[in-house]
Amino acid sequence: MDVRKKKKKVLLMGKSGSGKSSMRSIIFSNYVAKDVRRLGATIDVEHSHVKFMGNLTLNLWDCGGQDAFMETYLASQRANIFSDVAVLIYVFDIESREVERDLDTYNSIIEALHEFSPGAYVFCLIHKLDLIQNEHRLRIYEERSLLIRSRSEHFKIDTFGSSIWDQSLYKAWAGIVHKLIPNLYVIERFLQAFAKKIDAEEIILFERSTFLTVTSVSSDVGSMNPIYDRHERLSNIMKAFKHCAARNTHTTPASAGFLVMQTKTPQFNVFLGRFTDNTYIFVVVPPGEVAYNCAVLNTLLAREGFSKDAIVGHYEGFPLPTVDSSTGKGPNGSTHPLSQSDTSPDEE
Ligand SMILES: Nc1nc2c(ncn2[C@@H]2O[C@H](COP(=O)(O)OP(=O)(O)O)[C@@H](O)[C@H]2O)c(=O)[nH]1
Ligand SMILES: [Mg+2]
């Protein structure tokens, strides 16, 4: 099998009306939250293929959650549904009045999954948290999460609280796809080396069409950022921006794109731009024109090496010539044109 192409079967299950199709449409089909109310009920299983990062295809099985269907999934369709599953995403509606019954159904699904795909990842989304008052949200989420774990024999599961009305949806789905991306360690090692090289406080890599966070690195300074949910906030904001751009340029949100956005303040510089065919990169560097220009140019240079490494699936080192930070000289004494060691941003 070609290691560069990965197809993963993802089961999306949970009671009818719990919000499965809504979130799938928002994350992968560029719907906005207010539009998903128009979606019809899912009858039986709806298959869709979504591409992620170019080489990962998610084969999504959105399984209608009406009782009659649930019964056939567990009986006559059992092997067909539960074989070769990479990920089960199980959605619990926080508003459901039949918590015990929901847990029993979930437990039967877990048993079937264990029988046919014991190596699958299991993610449980405790969904529609917007319907719970803010001050009770965390407590109720944690109680429900404990209950679900107690019924998840054989599997070490991840749980997320989510709502289509805020950024929590992006956090949950970024957590899910993070587990599925081939060669993630190559991407992460590359970004770590790159961040160090350009003295970045933070770098976030977003997938181009979903704007989900693929991965991120932050320096000691970057880690002090008090906005703990900034990654998913950015996903949410950028998705909304794409909709706005599409409206104003008469295109579709899927094709609305931009090359670069920048913000320069006395405290920091930020730019967000197209990186590879499938990604956008968000870079935060210290203030000053030199630091900014250096980071932009190095990002342009790094692009090529990054695409190559990420596709080939191995890491051959950082694509830029090494610069001695104390002298600003390259390996054979040359001055690297993009070195920022001769002018520190503070000296401007
Ligand atoms: N309040 C709230 N409603 C939601 C949320 N997600 C979905 N819904 C609503 O729940 C209903 C059922 O959603 P749908 O996606 O069709 O559920 P499915 O049967 O699991 O596919 C729709 O009216 C959605 O607008 C959410 O996070 N919060
Ligand atoms: Mg549905």
Automatic annotation (TrEMBL):
GO molecular function term, any single one: GTP binding
CDD domains, alphabetically? RagA_like (cd11384)
Q: What spans are recorded as compositionally biased (Polar residues)?
A: 323-348
Q: Does the keyword Nucleotide-binding apply?
A: yes
Keywords linked to the UniProt accession? GTP-binding, Nucleotide-binding
Matching entries from InterPro entries are given as: Gtr1_RagA, P-loop_NTPase, RagA/B
Q: Which Pfam families match?
A: Gtr1_RagA
Member of which family? Belongs to the GTR/RAG GTP-binding protein family.
Function per UniProt: GTPase involved in activation of the TORC1 signaling pathway, which promotes growth and represses autophagy in nutrient-rich conditions.
Subunit architecture = Component of the GSE complex.
**Protein name per its UniProtKB record:** GTP-binding protein
Top-down, what is the taxonomic lineage of the species of origin? Eukaryota, Fungi, Dikarya, Ascomycota, Pezizomycotina
